[in-house]
What does this fold into?
Amino acid sequence: MRRGMDLPKDRPPEIVIIGAGFGGLAAARGLRNARANLTIVDRQNHHLFQPLLYQVATAGLSPAEIASPIRSIVRNYRNTRVLLDTVTGVDKAARRVKLASGAALAYDVLIIASGARHSYFGRDEWAAFAPGIKTIDDAVQVRAQILIAMERAETARQENPETRGQHLNFVVIGGGPTGVEMAGAIAELTRHAAEMDFRHITRNCIKIRLIEAGPRLLAAFPPTLGEKARASLMHLGVDVQTGGRVTEISQGQVRIGDETISAAAIVWGAGVQASPAATWLGAAADRAGRVVVEPDMSLAGHPEIFVIGDTSLAMRENGKPVPGIAPAAKQQGQYVARRLRAGIAGRALPGAFRYKNYGNLATIGRKRAVADFGWTKLSGFPAWFVWTTAHIFYLTDFRARLIVGAQWLWHYVTFDRGARLITGLGNKPAAPVIWSKDADRPPGAADPLAAPQRLPSSSPRSLS
It folds into this structure.
């Protein structure tokens, strides 16, 4: 296959894939008919369409609409098995993957596609107060915080307007695609919910602030599209603050310079940190923890190990890194599968990996988006239509059911009420008791206007 690969000739090679995201599943799909034994290891039992997680967090979609069991996806891959476990290390010399269960997987070829988590730039304690959104649990928790805040504001209708308004302050940190999409989705959710479901709050009660440390939004997009995104957010009622560096986050508060902002919910989308793959491998990595790879996506000195997706630092022909987005991870997974199939079959190996840029997209609310295709740029409804079509394509590509895409589009456009559920609280009350406007609170009863208690937040996790 390649000098140093040393694949067995008397048996099918054992290929271990860490992570069932876009990259890992693309590799598995490309190898489904190969003469090889595949093992997929993931700490979750489902593949998650992460680009739409923020829609779960803002009640636009239900979790089942963007996730599918890994075993269902690969059920027809006769050479593939799935293990629910967490990777703790890699023994390169012995060619074994160490698992949290205490087991170890022997491999002839290792594909690491373990994804990334949010980075708090050395302030990991902020995660308890400003969760990022990388898992369904994270998204459901944020959704509960937003909806509970609205319930508390409805209950607190007799409070002083200034004090009552604190229940409806929301802060999103980070002006990249994640932050922009999240801020727009919160604006859409709260505006529709206030108009459709509540009696004592209106859209004018709600304050949403998007904070970006840089000089403009969507730094990876052309400046004109960044300005269009800003205008669209402002039209939705979002207060956009650029050049604002967050210096402290605590319970219900964000500090920007000398200003302290109170918030019912704080969402983090400002940075990305790769999974611990570089530590597992003892490999060179950049500041974000991405493993430096060769042009063929392999680890230097170890042609049997491939690192793809958000976990890898692969360079393009223009000297810029391959972006950490789903299409790039999918292309890398497909490339590695082609390379392995060629080697197993004794054919000539493909050349270096080349990323094909099909464009950058970001949505702002339900009818606006920006799209940069290099040769043309779109904004407004045309960009939103392209964004919608692209996401349905990727969603149904893995789940192979067009009806899922149609159902998702219907819920997204109509703002289906079934997604606005407060769940994931166990036996804890979702909100204070709501007393009728003509009734007095019984003596000794709990104060329904007490300050809301923030739900505990899990630390962001990598997809391993």
The two ends are 27 Å apart (CA to CA).
